[in-house]
Design a protein that fits this description.
Strand content: 15-25%
Order of helices and strands: HHHHHHEEEHEHEHEEEEHHHHH
Radius of gyration: 23 Å
Number of domains: 2
Largest sheet: 9 strands, mixed
Structural class: alpha+beta
Number of helices: 14
Oligomer: single chain
Helix content: 40-55%
Distance between the termini: 9 Å
Length: about 375
């Protein structure tokens, strides 16, 4: 059972005097309890005592279930980097069976991990495969500005060959494009005021083309319309291949094209409009690039929303040592396992079924 092999590979940093409870037992207990709805050490302890017979089908639990304080101390004591690397092996095992990937990067604040005025809330940068919803990697950031080098270091550690990387405008950096291309991937990065010269140059480039060569847009324009509940969303994507005229664009490694997205939202006759710009290394047609731009925000809906609403991540008040980091890693790995299960149901539906049905719980964890 691959999950148990992963857990058993964790290095136990405790001294011999504190080894009454096996580390793999407690990690397994914590994972299963969170899968079934636990959000704190007390709930994990209660679940363990109620489900000890089920748990012993897979691990010995020779000394039973520890107190909530012992569970917290053991989980907090695991180095968070070791935890992330342990579960990353399982994600890579799944990834080997997939084709070309779209990997979206975004940051998330765990609001419940803030403790009074003394402790800042934990902030994590996460990489997610958009097609499958699998979370590949996560790393802590100290603040918003620190996200830039953190994402770059994550890219250097990950296998991104053949993947398309998307991120918001903060990560529109020449070094980021260097790291992506060096890893044999491609990028689609939004351009905003943090790259003011590039942004102004792209705007001027589209204006010049509209004026002098509008025929270039005939095969480089794509329109979408969707909506519900009285709301209509219209998006027009226009693509131009980068030329020597775009000197700032040439600074991004293997940059190939720039994209203009004009968005119009109509709600009860009230119209809102905005225009965004992107730079990409992709030589794909405008329709394909439009898909990467639109689907980037899936990380908000497919991961952040599920973690907050279904796993109740923001309600978790654990903050000490590596406790918040390690529980965040467990939630994300469980989310991968839940999404990998073939049952046609929502994440919330699968979690509820796992809490009630021991057989289904085993299927989630072990396949």
């Amino acid at each position: 059972m691959f999950l148990l092999e992963q857990i058993e590979s964790l290095t136990d940093q405790r001294k011999d005097i504190n080894l009454e409870y096996d580390l793999a037992d407690i990690v397994f207990l914590t994972m299963v309890a969170i899968l079934c709805g636990a959000t704190g050490w007390k709930a994990i302890n209660i679940f363990g005592e109620a489900q000890i017979d089920w748990l012993r089908q897979y691990r010995p639990f020779a000394n039973g279930i520890p107190t909530r304080h012992s569970i917290g101390r053991i989980i907090r004591g695991i180095k968070s980097d070791c935890f992330v690397n342990c579960f990353l092996q399982g994600v890579n095992h799944i990834r080997e069976q997939e084709g070309k990937e779209h990997i979206a990067f975004d940051g998330k604040v765990l609001r419940g991990s803030r403790h009074g005025d003394k402790t800042n809330a934990l902030q994590l940068m996460t990489a997610m495969v958009v097609e499958s919803g699998f979370i590949l990697y996560q790393k802590e950031t100290s603040d918003k500005t620190n996200e830039i080098p953190v994402m770059q270091s994550m890219l250097e550690c990950m296998d991104i060959k053949g993947s398309v990387i998307t991120a918001d405008a903060m990560h529109c950096q020449t070094k980021t494009s260097d790291v992506v291309i060096d890893g044999e991937g491609d990028y689609v990065l939004q351009v905003k005021e943090n790259q003011k010269n590039l942004l102004n140059e792209i705007k001027a480039f589209f204006h010049k083309t509209d004026r002098d060569e509008p025929e270039l847009f005939e095969d480089n324009c794509y329109n979408e319309v969707d909506g519900e509940h009285g709301r209509i969303n219209e998006r027009q994507y226009r693509r131009l291949v980068i030329t020597d005229w775009l000197s700032e664009g040439k600074k991004f490694k293997q940059s190939h094209a720039v994209i203009e997205v004009q968005r119009t939202r109509t709600i009860k006759e009230k119209i809102q409009q905005e225009t965004s710009y992107y730079i990409t290394s992709l030589a794909d047609n405008v329709c394909n690039v439009a898909g990467y731009i639109r689907r980037h925000w899936a990380i908000e809906n497919s991961q952040h929303w599920v973690l907050d609403v279904t796993f109740r991540e923001d309600e978790c008040q654990i903050y000490a040592e590596d406790g918040a980091r390690n529980l965040a890693t467990i939630r994300r790995h469980l989310l991968n396992l839940v999404k990998a299960h073939p049952l046609k149901d929502s994440v919330a539906g699968k979690l509820q079924r796992a809490a009630w049905d021991g057989k289904f719980r085993s299927e989630i964890l072990f396949g």
